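Example record

The entry below shows one chain as it appears in the dataset: sequence first, then structure tokens.
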Amino acid sequence: MVKRLLLIFIGWFCMMEIAAQIHGVVVDANSGEPIPYLNIYYDGKGVGTVTNNDGEYSIAYHAGWTKLTFSMVGYETQEIIVSAKTSELNVSMKEIDQMLDEIIIRPKKEKYSRKNNPAVEMIKKVIASKRRTDLKQKDFYQYYKYQKIMFAKNNITADTLRESWLFKQYPFFRDQVEVCDVTGKNILPLSVDETVYENVYRKEPHSEKTYVRGINSTGVNELFSTGEMLTTVLKDVFQDIDIYQDRFRFLQYPFDSPISEAGIRFYKFYIMDTIYVERDKCFRLSFVPNNSQDFGFTGSLYILADSTYRVKQCQLNLPKKTDINFVDHMVIDQKFGELPTGEWTLLEDDMLCEMSYLKKVLGSFLVRRTTRYFDFNFDPLPNRLFKQKGKEIKDVNAMMRDNEFWSKYRQEDLTQSEQRMGSFVDDLTKIKGFKYVMFFLKALIENFVETSTPDSKVDIGPINTMITSNYIDGLRLRASAQTTANLNPHLFLKGYYAYGFKDKRSKYMGEVEYSFDKKEYLPREFPKHSMTFTYQYDNMLPSDKFIHTDKDNVFTSLKVCTVDQYNYERKATIKYEREREFGFKTTAFVRYANYEPCGKLFYRTMAGESQLQSAIANGRLSGTEWVHSPFNTHDITVAEASIAFRYAPGETFVNTKQRRLPVNLDAPVFSIQHTLSVKGILGSDYTYNMTDFSAYKRFWLNSWGNIDVYLKGGIQWNKVPFPLLIMPAANLSYIIQEETFNLINNMEFLNDRYASLDVSWNMQGKLFNRIPLLKKLKWREFIGVKCLWGKLTDKNNPFLEQNRNDNVLMMFPGHYNAAGGYDYSSYVMDPHKPYVEITAGIHNIFKLLHIEYVRRLNYNNLPTANKWGIRFMIRTVF
């Protein structure tokens, strides 16, 4: 018993010895104020702590460890002798008289730990206090935002100014050059875009609106009818950054904010020093990505040295080693401040980006974005501000504001070159031969030619469809044109005439579209609300209706295999489209269509095939007449009505003269469509119902790039001949086309039930960056898989004995061989065996070219199978 008590006493004594604590307060020697987040540790022992917000600390004493170190950037390091008797230790720290004007952090393979890291602990405090700075905690708010985006030719050297023929011949170029106050380089401003926004918010019921109150755009973009494309792309690429968001979109990629839980894992943080920003004492934290080539920022956060943990200033830079294209140097500087009402918010946001492509040929360019937030108000707002539809509403007078408006809302004065932008453009247009240069540039960039300047009423194009060829036409010439809003802002005409020198037939299309909303240039401008009538006669592949690319595109007219099964199609369509600002679109149309097979395609019902075989067996018809037998069906006619719904929240677009392109591919897209045809109505030969659905979503994997997923499905509910079955979207050219199969031939599989999955993974160079040569080339890897599940129900299967004499079903497409036999080119899929093709590709070659190797994994026993192929496209991405 005595031994047991003795052991307990000795153990208790040892535990007390080990658990003995040293505690105290660390203060600034000059001000006497406590110093938070100061490092305290036993040097070389791996044990330490940091002071809390009140400068207090506590650390365990360890026998034999006699030196306790107190350290923080900006203060003299102190080593203090301690012993078992030391219980309270208060320390005064002396400041070091030094300022670090520029910190260059080169991440090495240092041992970096987030555990017990004072910088990480401070960021956690900033994250925990984010809610205090969130204006959306208010019941209402209203503020104005002024933004200016300037685009300029960068780095105009003294030699260029002195020796260039252009500057000597045209002095107004020299007058336009100015010095950038940030970089100190000579720049030549080419365009400037100013926008004034009014932002309003209501918490309950929740509503947010942005009113575009003023727009002032001048520069070379005025010379292009699609000049808003430059401004739209610049605003989308260089979006406003809110570091208080966990993730924000910039350069068309998602970035983790340093003030986020994901940011703690993505970045390394360092406490650099304590400095004054204006009159506020701040801790300066620097941060760098774990991997310098990942899409992340380096920079500094200046955090108020008080209990609020507010960000006073933020500076962001793109590391030079990052895998972002075209950006040579970029800096973002944000400043936060306190409003008279006590709220803390972003007040100034400045961004400067130097960019280049083919630098030795084109030189470099500069984009500068200046944003100011002002006139904050938190009083209740009238309901009328929230009644208008859409998240962003453009004031009808936005583009007609006078000098009084801009003198009131312009928060930063224009530079002299920016003020002269209008006269600079006028001087440009007066240069001899300039109109011919613009003619060439417009044809190259816009793919259309204007018939008059500056306000073209009719545009001729697309240029890339003028000369093509195919199996039916042989050499094909086409002339196309469309009217613009300069002729009528509501009524638009479009059409083409084409002639094939092989079949000696004319083809044509005419379209009349009435837009219920007034348009600035073309009817497709978002949001679209229109009624369209189209009449068309042309030759088409039966599967062309599943592909959205223009059939006459010269780049897609070169096929990877022989394509000889076509239809002459005559179609009349009336279509109604209505888009909502929140991303919901309704489309309804009625269509009359007549399909006449041509080339080596023919229509013959199973009943007609039985009659043909009987005629041959009885000697009434020779084998050479099989293709053009009297038992063939000359053509089929359908009249159908369709209703479709599409939902893509957050989708944004840029308008070109040829089509509207989505800019923000992060938006999910969902669609569903049903088509109905009733036999006898408007001459329709068949009754059928067809339902289609699709879904798209992009998933970001942080530094591992992004995965795009397309899911589609459809059902043909009724018995129909093969031209009305579901055909895979087959890409028969060498050019990559989205949402198509690369190694399926025209009509190779015919189904009345299908589902398809298209998954592609762009790894953004995550693997190639580990290979020295590829790392320097900035190539990026790409892999993907496309799957098709298909089923043909018995009622639509012409190969079954029960359908041998059916007068609706038709023989599947094929070719007659030399022996007079018939070789099918369309097949029935095994419903338990999906078609699969895989892709391995490289993109960002010369920052321009995308090349893919495609491999077909199954159904390779079919005579029509192409087992592999090479596909490419021109694609530029950041």
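Notes for this example: The longest helix spans residues 2-18. Residues 1-19, 98-109 have pLDDT under 50 and may be disordered.
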